[in-house]
């Protein structure tokens, strides 16, 4: 007799139930957002285990993120208890690693091989480029790395990269380097992230016995978010499922948003050709969102031509339910007003964060602010902090903790406070100024010996002959830069000082020249920083604010409002979702429009669809009429996506009257909008906001140092490590002019000589 029916089946609708109970053979659940695909997948595992169709370690389940895997495991444990622990549940990478550890020798790796992070990866690639005499100007390392990664996404080892893919110069060189890179990794007994999948795939392909072993091992295979699998992942699955074909994939073509990382939506659209006889289940009832949110989302996504097309029915409240609110669409004055409005709304909703127990089991479910680009987060973070609303950022550091922002802040700190050695260390050779390890060590030793700050030591060192000429010049130029920037403080608005520093230091240029996929985002963040500085009257006031912000941040709990990118929000759900920045060029993003045409526009629209469908009860879309981009105010147009939301489901509380009339007046008052294109360009000194900012009031503490050369007198005989013995001719500041017996007359740092 079969075991009694478990409680979790009772809650499913008939289609979901069919997807759960069709255990044998391929099953595809291709359905819209919030229809219970993830729930089906979790329940299916529970059901398999409950019926004892397989032992837990013979079930393989793939999720999109580690976090999703954790959540699924928790839900599973809640249904069937601790056996959930033994299920092979994780991301493609995590699962591949588990297999690779067992068969490492098959691809030339040894036990305990290491996995390189992105930094190591790039460093290694650069070394190889030097060895191969490759010109990093012609072939930017990050661009080469990108090509290699795309090949890996497609499951192509170097020998398999087709000639057609490597014909033009850069591609051909990339393929050659790819070969060397893989060889070098093996010599180092290491692999990179992409290799986890690639190596495992290669093993399965080259060793039918191993493939057969895994095909026998896993009785059931399940995959969430199948629309975002890349070719390597697709092939990996196909090999593993080749025997029994007990493969269940769930996904939604309307939510395919990772093509820029090699994902191919074609994988899901081709499923029933790849697996003939597959049971295809379509779920139409959405259990997550209100009918208005669904209506708005459906109206939007209908503008995509390249889709299967499916509509959703709200399972909960009816559209005429008085409790069901329309999607709020609001136009605001500028980004600051937008942030203020969002946080006001959050407070007005009096939203008690729910600890747990919702849908997919997200712990911090409640309210989310979902942005298109990370630079947008800053304004919200500032506002949330000011109002004391707890929040956390998912999928990346908070704004002021980002690498490029910390670097930029280090420049500002050093200018405001020349004794700030930590700031000095951080940026003295960022961007590269040709200061090697040895020079910097000399500097450290000297500063410590003399008990003076690094900047002061650098000044002395640059005026001496201690360093090689190249390093000396570089250090001198850096000190001169800092002095010049200090002189600007007080005379111009702090945001312009900031802009000037980013420009003249070459720091902004460094990221603009960078070819990595995250570099444009970093440039945007720097521009956003300049905007943040513009809100303060003095540089000191800004830095004080930052110090306080950092202080609260380090205490931040992982609760409260969730701030994250739209990309990271896939699969999650929240009671209330805010979708700010729906403006042309921001969302849809200018980069997507410029580079990818219609296909990219449709991917942006799918991203908007993902955003809207994260909401259970309320969704708020907003756009600003003006953005301060760097030092320029710039008018923005509401996103085309705003217009695509059907009127019936939205409530435009926007003060559109604000538009024409007032903006024109504003433009007059502040001297025009600045150029609209190119968007966000870093150019120093064009201060559209200058009129708002009072002159700074920075003051400088000048360090008082005695000029006696640390107790060494003129005429004294001294010894110097590099130049040997000599006699002191004169002493000034921390520097000595010494007539060396062998080296001749040199200027040296007083701390570096000892009485002979
Ligand atoms: P997405 O496409 O966004 O990943 P999804 O299709 O995976 O969404 P789920 O996250 O599984 O959808 O489910 C959405 C919400 O609906 C969850 O809160 C889930 O618990 C709930 N739900 C799903 N099916 C049912 C059902 N039959 N009865 C009640 N609630 C359900
Ligand atoms: Mg899901």
Present the secondary structure layout.
Elements: H1 7-10, H2 14-21, E1 27-30, H3 37-50, E2 59-62, H4 66-80, E3 88-90, H5 92-103, E4 114-115, H6 118-131, H7 141-153, H8 169-187, E5 190-191, H9 193-206, H10 208-217, E6 220-223, H11 231-241, E7 247-251, H12 266-269, H13 271-274, E8 279-281, E9 285-286, H14 291-301, E10 313-314, E11 327-334, H15 335-348, E12 367-371, H16 377-386, E13 391-393, H17 403-416, H18 421-427, H19 437-450, H20 454-462, H21 469-488, H22 494-504, H23 507-513, H24 519-533, H25 539-555, E14 561-565, E15 574-579, H26 590-612, E16 615-629, E17 632-635, H27 640-644, E18 650-652, H28 660-669, E19 717-720, E20 724-732, E21 735-740, E22 744-749, E23 753-755
Parallel strand pairs: 1-7, 1-8, 2-3, 2-6, 4-5, 6-7, 9-10, 11-16, 11-18, 12-14, 12-15, 13-14, 15-16
Antiparallel strand pairs: 16-17, 19-20, 19-23, 20-21, 21-22
Helix pairs in contact: 2-3, 3-4, 5-9, 6-8, 7-8, 9-10, 9-11, 14-26, 15-16, 17-18, 19-20, 20-21, 22-24, 23-24
Bound molecules: adenosine-5'-triphosphate and magnesium ion.
Residues 11-13, 16, 33-39, 252, 255, 287-288, 359-360, 571, 573 line the site of adenosine-5'-triphosphate.
């Amino acid at each position: 007799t079969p075991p009694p029916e478990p409680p979790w089946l009772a809650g499913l609708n008939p289609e979901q139930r069919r997807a759960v109970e069709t255990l044998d053979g391929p099953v595809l659940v291709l359905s819209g957002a919030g229809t219970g695909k993830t729930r089906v997948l979790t329940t299916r595992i529970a059901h398999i285990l409950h019926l004892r169709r397989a032992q837990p370690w013979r079930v393989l389940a793939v999720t999109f993120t580690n976090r999703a895997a954790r959540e699924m495991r928790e839900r599973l444990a809640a249904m069937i208890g601790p056996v959930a622990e033994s299920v092979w549940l994780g991301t493609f990478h995590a699962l591949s690693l588990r297999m690779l550890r067992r068969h490492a020798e098959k691809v030339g790796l040894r036990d305990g091989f290491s996995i390189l992070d992105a930094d190591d990866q790039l460093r290694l690639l650069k070394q190889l480029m030097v060895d191969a005499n490759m010109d990093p100007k012609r072939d930017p390392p990050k661009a080469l790395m990108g090509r290699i990664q795309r090949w890996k996404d497609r499951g192509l080892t170097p020998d398999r990269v087709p000639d057609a893919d490597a014909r033009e110069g850069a591609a051909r060189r990339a393929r050659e380097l790819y070969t060397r890179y893989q060889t070098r990794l093996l010599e180092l007994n290491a692999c990179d992230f992409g290799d986890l999948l690639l190596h495992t795939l290669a093993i399965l392909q080259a060793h039918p016995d191993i493939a057969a072993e895994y095909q026998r091992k896993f009785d059931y295979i399940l995959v969430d978010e199948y629309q975002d699998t890349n070719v390597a992942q697709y092939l990996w699955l196909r090999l593993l499922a080749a025997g029994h074909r007990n493969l269940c994939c769930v996904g939604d073509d309307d939510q395919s948003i990772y093509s820029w990382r090699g994902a191919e939506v074609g994988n899901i659209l081709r499923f029933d050709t790849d697996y003939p006889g597959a049971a295809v289940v379509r779920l139409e009832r959405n259990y997550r969102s209100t009918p208005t949110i669904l209506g708005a989302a459906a109206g939007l996504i209908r503008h995509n031509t390249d889709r299967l097309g499916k509509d959703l029915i709200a399972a909960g409240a009816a559209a005429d339910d008085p409790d069901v609110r329309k999607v709020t669409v609001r136009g605001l004055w500028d980004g600051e007003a937008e942030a203020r409005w969002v946080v006001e709304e959050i407070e007005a909703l009096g939203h008690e964060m729910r600890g747990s127990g919702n849908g997919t089991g997200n712990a911090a479910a409640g309210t989310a602010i979902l942005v298109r680009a990370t630079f947008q987060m800053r304004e919200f973070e500032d506002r949330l902090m000011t109002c004391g609303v707890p929040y956390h950022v998912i999928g990346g550091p908070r704004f002021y903790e980002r690498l490029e922002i910390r670097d930029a802040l280090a420049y500002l700190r050093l200018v405001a406070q020349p004794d700030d050695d930590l700031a000095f260390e951080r940026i003295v050779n960022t961007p590269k100024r040709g200061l090697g390890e040895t020079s910097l060590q000399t500097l450290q030793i000297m500063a410590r010996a003399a008990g003076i700050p690094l900047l002061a030591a650098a000044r002395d060192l640059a005026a001496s002959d201690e360093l090689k000429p190249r390093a000396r010049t570089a250090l001198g130029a850096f000190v001169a830069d800092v002095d010049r920037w200090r002189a600007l403080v007080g005379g111009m608005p702090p945001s312009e000082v900031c802009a000037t520093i980013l420009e003249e230091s070459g720091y902004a240029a460094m990221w603009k020249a960078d070819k990595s996929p995250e570099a444009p985002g970093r440039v945007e963040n720097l521009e956003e920083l300049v905007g943040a500085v513009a809100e303060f009257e003095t540089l000191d006031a800004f830095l004080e604010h930052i110090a306080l912000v950092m202080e609260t941040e380090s205490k931040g709990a992982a609760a409260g409002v969730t701030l994250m990118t739209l990309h990271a929000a896939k699969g999650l759900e929240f009671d209330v979702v805010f979708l700010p920045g729906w403006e042309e060029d921001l969302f849809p993003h200018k980069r997507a429009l410029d580079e990818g045409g219609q296909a990219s526009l449709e991917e942006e629209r799918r991203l908007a669809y993902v955003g809207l469908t994260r909401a259970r009860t309320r969704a708020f879309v907003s756009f600003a009429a003006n953005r301060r981009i760097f030092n320029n105010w710039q008018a923005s147009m509401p996103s085309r996506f705003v217009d695509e939301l059907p009127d019936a489901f939205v409530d435009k509380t926007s003060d559109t009257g604000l538009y024409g009339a007032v903006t024109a007046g504003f433009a007059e008052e502040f001297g025009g909008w600045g150029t609209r294109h190119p968007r966000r360009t870093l150019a120093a000194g064009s201060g559209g906001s200058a009129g708002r900012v009072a002159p700074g009031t920075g003051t400088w503490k000048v360090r008082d140092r005695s000029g006696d050369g640390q107790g060494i007198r003129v005429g004294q005989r001294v010894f110097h490590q590099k130049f040997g013995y000599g006699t002191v001719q004169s002493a000034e500041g921390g520097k000595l002019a010494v007539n060396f017996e062998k080296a001749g007359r040199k200027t040296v740092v007083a701390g570096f000589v000892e009485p002979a």
